[in-house]
Design a protein that fits this description.
Blueprint (H helix, E strand, L loop, with lengths): L3 H8 L20 E3 L2 H4 L8 E6 L28 H11 E11 L4 H9 L3 E9 L16 E8 L13 E3 L14 H11 L5 E4 L6 H8 L3 E6 L2 H12 L7
Parallel strand pairs: 1-8, 2-3, 2-7, 4-6, 7-8
Antiparallel strand pairs: 3-5, 4-5
Helix pairs in contact: 5-6
The chain binds S-adenosylmethionine (SAM).
């Protein structure tokens, strides 16, 4: 694992005659931060984040019935009143060349797109095609088999690797750590396309800390906020079990 303190100190190296105004180490890096994003993000310095990868409450009172174990409802999932303030804070903490991936449902993608578009360049909508479909109106509607990911750029950074499709096929997680747990392989793919080793990734709605686990596997630093203590307790164990890839 990379040495986060040393890496992050480098973020704040000033030219010899500039005033050193920032503390040496960013708070929350590579920790399970059990805190509301609105409080946590205030402590994140300006222009420090290389990638935002997050899966917010969709504002549609989501409640899963399919999982074996019933989970609580997602907190703050009844409206999107927070969206404007959230985008403003993301803009402040993102580096000028940062990328952003925001999971979203088709139900309110227009609101997300419009609000994000006021701050960032909305470049694409990626489709995550799942291996099987969810439940719902079995006879009166089409089976839901995808989720959307809004891809934004804060500058003109290029993607790593060869040309990748905007449709990504990936199996759902077989585990039941969180009602909307995202596949680590999918997250790893997005992180690898948009960051390099040692870069700093922000997830303001961490859930089971799947973004953090993906970051740890591939040597990226992370700041991840989650407001629900139960998920944070689970995440500590999950993160301890993640081994770091040597390649
Ligand atoms: C859609 S889930 C994220 C699931 C996650 N991607 C995963 O793979 O496990 C959204 C999460 O945001 C959390 N949340 C809601 N409001 C929050 C807030 N104000 N600050 C931090 N976390 C919040 C919820 O408790 C929920 O776990």
């Amino acid at each position: 694992m990379i040495n986060s303190s040393t890496e992050l100190e480098n973020l704040h190296v000033s030219p010899p005659d500039a005033k050193p105004v920032l503390p040496a180490v960013l708070p929350f890096v590579n920790e399970v931060a059990c805190i509301d994003w609105e409080d946590g993000i205030k402590q994140v310095f300006d222009n420090t984040i290389d990638l935002v990868l997050t899966d917010p409450p969709y504002g549609m009172a989501y409640r899963s019935n399919r999982r074996k174990e019933k989970h609580k409802s997602i907190q703050n999932d009844t409206d999107l009143d927070w969206l404007g303030d959230w985008c403003k804070e993301l803009k402040r903490v993102c580096k000028p060349e940062a990328h952003l991936y925001i999971f979203c449902s088709w139900h309110n993608i227009d609101v997300f797109k419009q609000t994000l578009g006021a701050y960032f360049n909305v470049k694409n909508i990626l489709v995550w095609e799942k291996n099987n479909h969810g439940s719902g109106d079995l006879l009166g509607d089409y089976a839901p088999k995808y989720e959307l990911i809004i891809f934004c750029s804060n500058g003109s950074k290029k993607l790593n690797g060869g040309r990748s499709s905007n449709v990504i096929k990936c199996a759902k997680m077989p585990t039941d750590n969180h009602p909307t747990e995202k596949p680590i392989n999918l997250l790893r793919h997005l992180i690898e396309k948009s960051t390099n080793k040692g870069d700093l990734v922000l997830d303001t709605f961490a859930g089971s800390f799947s973004t953090a686990r993906a970051c740890k596997e591939i040597g990226r630093d992370f700041i991840c906020f989650e407001v629900e203590p139960e998920y944070c307790r689970t995440a500590k164990n999950l993160l301890n079990g993640v081994s770091v890839s040597l390649f």
